[in-house]
């Protein structure tokens, strides 16, 4: 949601170690604010398979938006007792996240960038940048910021300066990036966008992954970070300048359909695919469930700053049972033969930068943990529900637009280390409900920006194969 929304994670049963993950200090009063929806009502975009596909890989660390969601979630649980001196929190990797990296060519130079669905700006770090220590503000070596190769505008014939504008963004986890604005030719997934505005970062406080060289935002709105003038220190209380993010230019100027889709893989070494302008060639079940995107921002009520924009949808409810024969009442009409759903009408963030599912503890996380065989146990040190690694998991599903999307049992047990496992459904101690990778690995997520809808189809469940029936225009 920032560096991450479908932005930051542990995949399947991959074994991870306990990690010391930097989390933001939550200073001030924050809220997830629901924004007014557009008055226009465009039709659903016709979905077809596209060759404009980007193969993703996973990087370690947080997307900044996902990190901030976790900090807010854990603040409710009084986790200050486990904070380290530098403001970190000792977290299990499954409670953390990871970033998705995608290849991109900018001005003829190749990079990996973080894909973030919680922010809008494209930016790259440039040669000879200044690295600042995230924790104490002192100057550090370039290697301490953990970037991959740097962009050099002098090596590009298509770069142009954008005068009298500067780039400045401060992420909620203490990271920041400042620099200038420019034009450059971007190429991603076989789509070329000339004269794309972007940030050239020459000073940054960053906890990089050692691979990525910047970020490309895919948020549904446009919280861009360009400001008038050449001095980023003068940007306080100044309205940012709007410009088209990369994907907006793809569909507004390059004829790409206004949709992108995400299919996350269970294999940790293969992150999945991002399809631009259509669907990837992956098996999925017939029929999509379509639901409006609810515009939602993380809003700092103290400073008045909008930080991240999330892809948020209304969930009809959640179903859980220890019996494979259970039928859930997804329509909500009286039916004694079907089990009612819990958490009806929950506003939920769809975030690939979060590894697991976070839901209300009393009504969902705890009763789900109790249905494992043997039952799960609460771990107060890490605020998670532990389960036996060889446990039999319950059935768990998420109902959207009156269609149930089940989590594969293989994803319900997340291994943290030899003999140490947690439930894929964990407690959110505030009001944040997050559908992370445990759920997203089982669906094809379509972000239909033209119709302002999210669309989901089941995949990797019920024995789907490459020959599965596909009906994309539903």
From TrEMBL:
<keyword id="KW-0732">Signal</keyword>
<dbReference type="InterPro" id="IPR033121">
    <property type="entry name" value="PEPTIDASE_A1"/>
</dbReference>
<comment type="similarity">
    <text>Belongs to the peptidase A1 family.</text>
</comment>
<dbReference type="InterPro" id="IPR001461">
    <property type="entry name" value="Aspartic_peptidase_A1"/>
</dbReference>
<feature type="domain" description="Peptidase A1">
    <location>
        <begin position="100"/>
        <end position="457"/>
    </location>
</feature>
<protein>
    <recommendedName>
        <fullName>Peptidase A1 domain-containing protein</fullName>
    </recommendedName>
</protein>
<dbReference type="InterPro" id="IPR021109">
    <property type="entry name" value="Peptidase_aspartic_dom_sf"/>
</dbReference>
<feature type="active site">
    <location>
        <position position="351"/>
    </location>
</feature>
<dbReference type="GO" id="GO:0004190">
    <property type="term" value="F:aspartic-type endopeptidase activity"/>
</dbReference>
<dbReference type="GO" id="GO:0006508">
    <property type="term" value="P:proteolysis"/>
</dbReference>
<feature type="active site">
    <location>
        <position position="116"/>
    </location>
</feature>
<dbReference type="InterPro" id="IPR034164">
    <property type="entry name" value="Pepsin-like_dom"/>
</dbReference>
<dbReference type="Pfam" id="PF00026">
    <property type="entry name" value="Asp"/>
</dbReference>
<dbReference type="GO" id="GO:0000324">
    <property type="term" value="C:fungal-type vacuole"/>
</dbReference>
<feature type="signal peptide">
    <location>
        <begin position="1"/>
        <end position="16"/>
    </location>
</feature>
